[in-house]
Please model this.
Amino acid sequence: MASLFPKPRKKLVFLASGRGSNLEAVLQAVQKGRIRGIPELLITDNPEASAIGVGSKYGVPSKILNFSSYAQKEKYHSDLLEILEAQSPDLIVTCGYMRILKKDVIRSFPNRIINIHPSLLPAFPGLNAQKQAFEYGVKISGCTAHFIDEGVDSGPVILQGTVKIDPEMTERELTLAILKEEHKILPLAVKLFCENRLSIKNRKVSIL
Ligand code: GRF
Model:
């Protein structure tokens, strides 16, 4: 029998390095009551990130770990892990976070870190995915919301959004069209996670 009590909301922590438009898409969805989550903290490696302002607009505090001011880069990663463990989120969302997470972070939060990547994975992993797709000449590209595993952009795929590339489309137009899709699928992936509707078997994600 289903519980008569509402399920508790999931604790969310975000990692972002830049503009923060995906962060904003998720926070808007929380604000509108579409995501049953509590955005608790934004962590950024970049003190100049506009994402910090986005977070504060929605009342989300930021913790700045200025990557470039760390003489020992290992210390950055251990500080990050310490903050994450102290915060103990149900879900970490990396949205425009430009660093690769260390294995110990990934192992501490297995299948509890969601990333948004601007290509149809497994095509065009890594940096500048939109440019890679544009230059390759594919006819369809898009974006992927996926769980993070120990590889680069290689974790189980949750959702994908597609963009048709017309012959006259510029790389900038492609990037903007993909971003529009990102703003749809990342909040949806977070919503599904918060409703316990994602199940993973043999790396395949089913939506319950
Ligand atoms: C997005 O295209 C995301 O897919 C990529 O970096 C960009 C970040 O944009 N990883 P924003 O900071 O969310 O606006």
User: Anything to note?
Assistant: The beta strands are 10-16, 37-44, 62-64, 91-94, 113-117, 140-147, 157-164, 198-201, 204-207. Helices lie at 21-31, 51-57, 73-87, 103-108, 129-136, 171-194.
